[in-house]
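We emphasize that the prediction below concerns an isolated chain of 114 residues; any contacts that depend on oligomerization or on bound cofactors are therefore not represented. The input was used exactly as deposited, without trimming of termini.
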Amino acid sequence: MPRSVNSVAAKARRNKILKAAKGYFGRRKNVHTVAKNAVEKGMQYAYRDRKNKKRTFRALWIQRINAGTRLHGMSYSQFMGKIHANGIELNRKVLADLAMNHPEAFKAVVDKVK
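Result of the prediction step, given as a token string:
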């Protein structure tokens, strides 16, 4: 019985890896074994950083709110404490957007909690 080799599927598998490695530098973009390692590592970083993105954005929002509240003579922690005490249900993402793009609206929120 002749040897059966599914070279169509094997080539498709390799091409899938090489397509994912498009834009990589050197042999990482055109040598299958090197590209496979690079793509797998890239997938690990992508998985990890989908989680980290949430942290970094929250940190950015906190910095923007802090900068906005300091202009009105408050600290971030005082502001957030008073916002929760007054029952204002604006999340950090919205507050950061107000502080950055709509300072007059943010000032109204700060005056309301003072």
